[in-house]
Every structure is written in structure tokens, then in C-alpha cells.
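#structure-requests
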Amino acid sequence: MDGSPRPSRYTCRDDGGVLSVCAELRRSEGGCDGGRVHAETVFDTLPEPVVVMDLDGRIQHANRQFLREAGQTREYVLGKTPSDLGLQDREQFLQCRKEVVAKLISGESPVSIEIIAQWPDGRAVPVLLNIALLRSDTGEPQMMVASCRDVNLIKQAHERTAEKEKMLQALLDAIPEPLFLVHSEGRVLACNEAAAQGAGNSVQEVVGRALIDCRESTAPSGLDEQYMAKIAEVLCSGRPACVTDERNGLVLEYTLYPVRDDKGWVTNVTICARDVTKQIRAQNELRECYERLGSVEHLASLGMLIASAVHELTQPLSVIRLVNQTTLAEAKKLNCSDVVKRDLEASLAASATMAAIISRFRDCARQPTKTRETEVHIGGVAEWTIRLLEHSARQAKVTIRTEGLEALPVIRMRENELEQLFFTIAQNGIQAADGTKDRHLLIAGAVRGDAIELRFQDNCGGIEPAYLPRIFEPFFTTKPPGKGIGLGLCTARRMVQQRGGQISVQNRYGEGVTFTVILPGK
């Protein structure tokens, strides 16, 4: 014999706890000191009182914890029953032994019973016995191994555990977002009230279920495989992960965090669900604000460019007008031909038109608050607009007419803004015409209660439906390069809204467009 332990013919069948220590410690069939010493060492490491008894209840081995509680030596207790040691009433012992042996032989193992143990210090302690059967290699019942646990200590431990679980549940319920603690197998170990409500159940009903069964309204819909794959990824990598689910107009973000045991192994995963819909919308709105800010900066730069161009053009144009006036006066004195005088007069008229256009640009570049409000005749503004657009309308074969404008009352506002409004909408209609056939643009006005309604109706083809939602956006244009920069309708709407009015569009694609402007009359 080499003195090393060898497997025994005795095995203990038990699912866990103290009784998972098996009696496979025998050196040979006859036994030896080495096997006995090894068995004693194994049992002495157990924190609970443990005894090995034959089927008659006589003690064959007792660990140190049992000897400490019984107040006896190992030599004294060997071969004696618990009743011999005064730990249990004899009649009670015989009845319990009979029932336990019958259950063990019938295949029920381990067997749990509760008795009252009389310890030498006078304590009568309720004890929970877990008893398992040791069988030989041939399956014959040989020994019983029993562990003893103080019922009072068990109850105290349960109470402490219940109190900690209660505190943990209170902490979880204080978290407003749904929160799950999930086992590596996908089973819910704990959750808060928000998570249970999202699953349509109580906390007690959710705990213990598979997480995938709770996904109707809490876990990602249609993302089962991806979701479980993320859990597996967190368990393997030990790093947090995130899953996003968009449905029913909501954006839900699930963050998975690893939970480690005392040895640092990832055993569970915490899953926190957050509704980030408002956050996403706020981010989108912030991005749109930055885009609008860029448009405003673009407009400011354009205004400075216009002001600079107006300043540079004003002086040479004034010189041209002065020269033309002087030349015309001299031509009349010298009795020049009528052709020369007409050409000079046409040149002066064109110079005046150019001066008016430059003046409009200058007014656009100025701060609106610096322009005085006056009583404006709407009919006069319409007549000025028609005269200004007469040439381009003739080229596009568009006939402009008015209806009811002269009967409108005067309106108090900045005249240049009303001119710009008329010019922008009318010019858009003209530019929409293809010049292949005759078109019409009607500018009509009427009084509607305390407001003035202006209607710009054309049959110049209408607006592409896909472009309609964007026609009031700054710098949006469907015109070819050099024909427009997409600021006209944007500026027109801004001016109307600043006065408390409204501007709307009715599109008849393939036929025409009607812009309706409502301006407060007072």
C-alpha cells in the first residue's frame, strides 16, 4: 500500500450542501489509517455538525463541530446513538430512525426532519437534520450521513436575507427606468416595479421567468436573437453593451452591465431600459437650430454683400443719369433729331429703373426696425409690381391683372416689405411659366372682417408635390443656377408672420398655384 487515498465502495447521493461530501475515502476494503485520517480531515472542515451512523443509529464518525456542540470526545461518541449521548429522547430517536431508514431505503434521499436537540449546556435547540444514505458498490444500504443545522439560526439567516431583499427591492423600485437582473441562462433573478409593469405583471410573477417571455412591452420587440446575443457578449467579454429598439414612435435604449461574483467572474447581467425619445428629439431639434443658425449667418453675409454692391453701383449710376440729363438738355438746345432725344430719354428711364432696383436692394439690406411704417395703398404697390415685372411677364407670356385692390383700405406697414411681398410671389408665378403658351396671374384682394386677404392665383403649372413642404425653407430653390437663391418665399413668410398674419399655398400640380396672404387690417 502506498498510503494515498483511493475511491471507496461507499457513495453519498445528495444534490448540494454539506451532504455533497461523499464517503469515497477508503484506501482498501479493509480500511486503513490513511483513509480514516483523510475522512476525518474532510469532515472536520465542514462548518456544521456532521455525523456518520449505521442503520441502527450508532455513530461511526463525528466531525469537530459536532463534538464541540455535544461536549464529548470522538472516542466517547463512537458506537453510541444520539439518545445514548442525551441529545435526544430515546423513544423519539427510535421513531425518527425508523421513519428515516424506511424513506432512505425506499429511494428518498436526502430526508429532512426537525427535532429538538438537548445540548449538554442545557439548551433545547430545534435542529434541522438532512440525512442521506450511503450505499455500497452493490447498492446495499450501509451508512447514514447527517448534517445538523440550528433552526433558529436558519430562521435568523432567512430573516436577514428577507430584510436585505426587501431593501434591495425598495432600491430597485426607486429607479424610474425598468431594471432587470438576469442570470447567465436568461432567467430573471430580480426586477423593479417599472420593469414588471412594462411586462404587464407583478414583480413576483416576473422573477423566475425567462427574460424573453417578458419582452412584449419591455424588452426589444423583434430583436430576440440580437438581444440574447448581446447578453452572451457581456457575459463573455465583461464589458457593457447597448441595444436600441425603435417602435410605435418611441426610441428605447437597453444598456447591459456585467455583474461579477467574489472571484471576479461575470455571473449575471443587469439590464436597464430607458426611453430616449425626448432626448433624440431634443438632439434633432438642436441640430436643426444649428442649421437655422447657419442659414441666418448666410443671410447676414448676403445682406452685407448686397449693401456693398449697392454702395459700389450707386455712384457710377448717378454719373450715368447726370450725363444723360446734361446730354438731353444740350440735344434739345441744338435741335438734334428726335431719334437721339428719344434714345436719351429711354436711357434716363432705364437709369431710373436701375436706381429703383438698387434702392430695393438697399432697403432689403437695412435693419427692418429702421424703416418707418406708413399708410400704404395696396393698389399702388400692385401697380408698381406689375410695371417692374412687365418685361419678364411679357417674355414668359404671362398676363397680370388685378381685382378689387383699389377698393381695399390703406394698411399701415413698411411699404418696402409689402412691395417685396408682391414682387416675390408674382415673380415666382412668372418664373414657373415655360413661355410656350399664354398664362394668367390674378392678384385679387378682399376685406375679411378685420383682416385683408390677398390672393395670388396663376395657371403657370403648379409646384412639384415633393417640393411643396420645403418652399418656405431658406436657400431652397428649384430654379437653375443664376435664376434664384431660394430666399424670396422664406423672407415673405417671415415678414407676414412678424405682422401677425398668415401665408398659405394651395397647389394644383400641372395647373397652377394660389398663394393666400392674410394681413391684419388694424
